[in-house]
């Protein structure tokens, strides 16, 4: 019979954290590609918070002053 290895809770938490950071990095890149710098910045800040890094910039509570840019879907 094959040996079965189960992940411990700590390993699972580390894997979950890595997956979330990768998703936030992807979201940041897509937001930049679509031209929404503010949304990209928020995704980057979320990734920094999850990794436990200090925030490099204070969070601004400003309203958007431009319309969202439509991106081609092809």
Commentary on this structure:
With 74 residues, this protein is mainly alpha-helical. 55% of the residues lie in helices and 0% in strands. It has a domain of 41 residues.
* Helix-strand makeup class: mainly alpha
- Gyration radius from CA atoms, angstroms: 18 Å
Tell me the overall shape: flat
For the largest beta-sheet, the strand count, sense and barrel status come to:
none
Mean pLDDT over the residues: 77
Strand content: under 5%
Q: What is the H/E string? A: HH
List the helices and strands and how they pair.
Layout: H1 9-34, H2 37-51
Quickly describe the structure.
By secondary structure, the protein is mainly alpha-helical. It is 55% helix and 0% strand.
Task: For the structure shown, list the relevant keywords.
2 helices; 74 residues; mainly alpha; 55% helix
């Amino acid at each position: 019979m094959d040996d079965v290895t189960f992940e411990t809770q700590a390993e699972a938490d580390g894997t979950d954290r890595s997956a979330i950071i990768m998703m936030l990095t992807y979201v940041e890149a897509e937001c930049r590609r679509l031209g929404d710098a503010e949304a990209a910045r928020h995704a980057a800040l979320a990734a920094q918070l999850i990794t436990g890094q200090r925030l490099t910039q204070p969070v601004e509570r400003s309203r958007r002053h431009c319309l969202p840019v439509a991106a081609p879907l092809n």
